[in-house]
Amino acid sequence: MIKLHGFSLSNYYNKVKLVLLEKGIPFEEVHVRPGAAASADGKSPLGKVPFIETEQGFLCESQVIVDHLEARFPSPALLPADPWEAAKVRELITYCDLHVELCARQLYKQAFFGGQVSDEVKARVRTDLSRNLLAFKELARFAPHVAGEAFTMADCAVYVSLPLAAMASRIVLGEDLVAAAGIDWKAHVKLMEQRPAVQKVAADRKADQERSMAAARAEKLSP
Length: 223
Fold this sequence. Notes:
The protein is of the alpha+beta class. 59% of the residues lie in helices and 8% in strands. Helix 1 packs antiparallel against helix 9 (196-221), helix 3 (83-104) runs antiparallel to helix 5 (119-139) and helix 3 runs parallel beside helix 6 (153-173).
């Protein structure tokens, strides 16, 4: 059985988990915090999550994992059969992961973890993220799914990351840059929430968040 290593507060972990659930692939979750995967044993050389464990060994990087799952378990398909359309789905994922989420990630320290980011970083992210979101909008269809009528792995990537970019920019920059770019991300979330796999991922993420908050409170109260 495939073992998925990571934790439910990670959007990239949830991207892989969502694909596993949508495909009906049996898997076991192994709770691992980022940086805890020792590089010496070959599990995740940079100590990043998620990574999976299979009978053939370990595999890391969320999109590599998702592509492997699609090739190994082709039904139900999360990529179009047409090579061009499949490439367009992967293009959307690349734009979401690299140009939107990783750009917005520079704000997470202040948005979600109680830290601060400099005014220089804020100004740069506002400029870069606004530009990148307009580029993403040119590619995305939302008709009603990200790549068109059919649900694809692009929906998995966008569901776990685009709302974070929206919330982080609103909290830190005072404006939801995703909505400002003309992207109705809330409608996509509402559409996705109709899927049982998404409901499972959301419930597990909420439970993990509540456990983390309770642990933090207990640590503050301890002598």
